[in-house]
Design a protein that fits this description.
Helices cover 57% and strands 0% of the residues. By secondary structure, it is mainly alpha-helical. The chain has one domain. Helix 1 runs parallel beside helix 4 and helix 3 packs across helix 4.
Length: 82
C-alpha cells in the first residue's frame, strides 16, 4: 500500500541532515494527518497499514526531526500483535 511507502519515505528522510528540506514541515504535518486519518478507516487492511507506518515513524523518532505542535501523540503505545 502507498501508506507504507509514505512511512518509509519519511523514515528515510528523517535520518538525513537535510530532512526538513526534503520534506518541509507543512508536508510532514499533512502526511501525519493522512496517516492518522487512515488509521480510523473502516477497512482493516487500510487501518493496519496506517498503524504500521505510524510504528515505523515512531521507531525512527521522526517527531524529533520535525517540530510539530501535537508531538505528544508520539508517546501513544500501539499494541499490534501481528
Amino acid at each position: 500500500m502507498a501508506i507504507n511507502g509514505l512511512g518509509q519515505a519519511i523514515a528515510i528522510a528523517s535520518r538525513r541532515e537535510d530532512a526538513q528540506l526534503l520534506i518541509p514541515p507543512e508536508k510532514f504535518r499533512a502526511a501525519i494527518g493522512g496517516i492518522v486519518k487512515l488509521g480510523m478507516e473502516k477497512l482493516e487492511p487500510v487501518r493496519a497499514a496506517s498503524w504500521r507506518a505510524w510504528r515505523v515513524l515512531r521507531d525512527v523518532q521522526a517527531g524529533q526531526v520535525w517540530d510539530w505542535e501535537l508531538a505528544q501523540v508520539w508517546d501513544f503505545e500501539s499494541k499490534d500483535e501481528r
